[in-house]
Every structure is written in structure tokens, then in C-alpha cells.
Design brief:
Elements (H helix, E strand, L loop, with lengths): L7 E6 L7 H11 L3 E6 L3 H4 L2 H8 L17 H7 L3 E7 L1 H9 L5 H8 L4 E5 L3 H5 L1 H12 L3 E2 L3 E4 L5 E5 L3 H18 L6 H7 L8 E6 L4 E2 L5 E2 L6 H12 L3 E6 L11 E4 L3 H11 L5 E4 L6 E3 L19 E3 L3 H7 L6 E8 L3 H12 L3 E6 L11 E2 L1 E5 L3 E3 L3 E2 H17 L1
Parallel strand pairs: 1-2, 1-3, 3-4, 4-5, 8-11, 8-13, 11-12, 13-16, 16-17
Antiparallel strand pairs: 6-7, 9-10, 14-15, 17-19, 18-21, 19-20
Helix pairs in contact: 1-9, 4-6, 5-8, 11-15
The structure holds cytidine-5'-triphosphate.
The site of cytidine-5'-triphosphate has 15 residues, from helix 13 and strand 16.
Length: 419
Amino acid sequence: MSEQKKYRVGLGVCGGIAAYKAIEALRLLQKQNCEVSVAMTKHATEFVQPLTFRALTDTYVLVDDYDESNPDPIAHINFSQNIDLLLIVPATANILAKFANGIADDFLSSTYLASNAPVMVAPAMNVSMWNHAATQRNIEQLKADGVIFVEPVSGELACKTVGTGKLEDVENIAEQVMKVLSLESIVQSPIVSSTQDSRLKTLDLKGESLLITVGGTREAIDPVRFISNHSSGKMGFAVAEAAQKRGAKVTVVCGVTNVEPPENVAVVKAISAQEMFDAVMQKLPESSVFIGAAAVADYRPKQIAEIKIKKTVNDIFNLELEKTPDILANVAANRHEKLLVVGFAAETNDVVNYAKSKMEKKNLDLVVANDITQKGAGFGSDTNIATIISRSNQIELPLMPKRELADKILDEVLKLRAK
Ligand code: CTP
């Protein structure tokens, strides 16, 4: 297994009751192979001792540049220049106000100004403070400055009031940190906008039931041999994960894959094209969107030998193949009124034309086409370069993680649903 990239995260902790949750965020990021260094505001130290973070990170926790115990005389510069992302958990109304106005009167606010790394803030505060015009103005300013927000959620707050102001689940915060870091390392430019994190919490696919075929199929020749392909299943699973996160009920009919299915999706195993076809047809009536992301074998051996085929003296061995059922075409041909049908077209040449003819021939609503000869778009890769084609539109997308492409595909599905 390849070693996961080690990212450096600067964790800023502010003075709020949710400060203890920063400990959990730190642990989650460390589990994701992040090297985390911690800076605290003075007020944060009223809630959690610097020693806690020091023990967990094995490094000096910065609170005050001028403190005699601080081993680094220009700590805010060194700290800010040696991180891949600055994360603030919890972000108080006070730190948002300082960041928005460029006030640098303590270590953390100086670090914010001195850093070129992306900044993510997870605010937590009393509902009135959150709703206050001044705070909302600062939030708007920070979003315009490119700061990524993990918005607080609604719930019972420490002050016993109910409303927006509760820190988002630390799991989601850590997940969004990793998403930004992996995007940064792929594209090496600040392409993440504040709309992308809110997407994770948008349940815009609620009420939809997605049926997705994933991975490659295996077509048996005899008890030991088979015909298959290089599909990893990553693209299909990325769509499944994205759809589940956006509130859809998801079933994957899963062939052979290199990766584990995401959590909270139903998995039906189907190794051959015929098994996949049968499983899909059984689940189809309860589905509202079908996505054919599997690399289904087009042909299979006409006869499966019951016992192992032995070598003969002949140099040539002929294997007679027959067509497998085309799952995607059959789904589209037997669709109920509400069903949207999405196919994939992995091509090596004349990509868009082949994809368009596939859309016509198989009667698809959407086809996701990619040129598998391009760097970053092949089988097994974590990224893809795709063109999403519908009857009225054609969107050419740049190199991006499969997980992000998954969201783009689902955005187009939603546009079709709206029609
Ligand atoms: N597909 C399917 N069942 C099959 C074959 C393909 O559901 N038996 C689906 C795939 O999941 C994908 C799309 O059809 O969504 C790919 O179309 P296909 O015409 O099979 O692609 P190729 O095998 O590349 O075909 P061609 O050789 O015509 O390019």
C-alpha cells in the first residue's frame, strides 16, 4: 500500500466551551497522518490547558510570542510558513472579527495574517452572537477573502438556548480538512470555494434512490480462469458516497473492486455480467436514478468448462465468446417514468462523438465520457478528466478527484430532475 501524504495542519484553538472538541479534531487529523501544531488564544487556555495539546503533539504550544518559555523568537512567521492549512476550532466571534479586519494583536491573529496556506474556520458561539449583524458582516468578508467555513449547526447550545451556533461534528471538520488538503496537493492552487464545504451538508438528493453498478465483472472460462478488466470501482464508489452524503438512499451492485465500499450504502455482490444484470433488474423498480459506472464485460465465454481446461499440443486456443446482456441499455429500455439513466463511456479516441452515439443508442439522459489515455484519467486513478454530456448540454471538466467529479455528475442529475 502506498504511504499516504503527510500534511501539516496548524490548529488554532479559541476561547469557547467547544475548545475541548479541538482535542478530538487533533486526534482525528493525526489518525489521517497529519502533523498538527497547535496555537491557542489566551482565553482558550482558560478552557483547556496547553499541556494537553503539548502532550498529544509533542511540540511547544504557542499562546504568546513574547512568552519567555517560547523557544522560537519569530514563532508566528515560522509557524505560519510551515503549514499546509490553518484550521480554527472553535472559531469565536472575536477571532472572526479580528481575521476579517486584519487585527494582529496576539499569536493566532498574527499567524492568520502571516500565512499563505488555506484557512478553514469552524465557528461555535451563542446564537445571538452568531446572528449579530457584525458577526455576519465579518463572515461575509472572510468568505470573500477565501476563508473556508465549516458552518455551525443548529442545536442546544452550552448557554441552554437553542439555535445555530453549535460546532459542526469534528468528524465532518476533519473530513473537510482532508478534502481541501488533497485538492490543494492535486491542483496546487486555492480552488476550494466556501460553497464546496456547505455542499457536504446539503441534502439535495433526499427522496432519491440511486442504483449504481460499480467495478469490473468476471466472466468464467473454467473453474480457475476468467476474463475481466482493470476497473477499480473508485468512480462508482465515489458517486455512491457523494449521493449518500447528499441524502439519497444508495444501493451499489458491486462487481470486482480494489477498494472498500463507502459507509451507509447497501451493497449487492454480483461478479458476472449476468449476476449484475439480475441484481439490477430486481432493484430497479424501487430506484429513481440508475448510474452504470461498472466496466461490464461485453462478451463472455459461450461455454463455461465444468472442469479445468488442459493444455493441448496446439499453439492456438480458440475461445468462443457471446455477448453479455447490456445492463444500461436494458435499464433505459424498461425505465419507469421517473427514472433517470446515466452511463459512462471510457474511450481512447474520438471520445465525445462515441459518447454521444452511446447516449443515443442506449437512450441515456446523461453520459460521463473520459479519455482513458490521458494522464490522471485511467483505471485505478483517484482522479479523472471527464466531459458530462446531456441532450442539451456538454460540460468539459478539468482534472479533479473522482469524489469531486461525483458531485458534479450528481449536480447534473439534479438539473435533469428539475426539468
Ligand atoms: N454497460 C452495461 N452493460 C454491459 C456493457 C456496458 O451496463 N454489458 C454500461 C457500462 O456500465 C457503461 C456503459 O455501458 O455505463 C459503457 O458502454 P459500452 O457501450 O459497453 O462501452 P464499451 O464497452 O466501451 O463499448 P464500445 O466497445 O461500444 O465502445
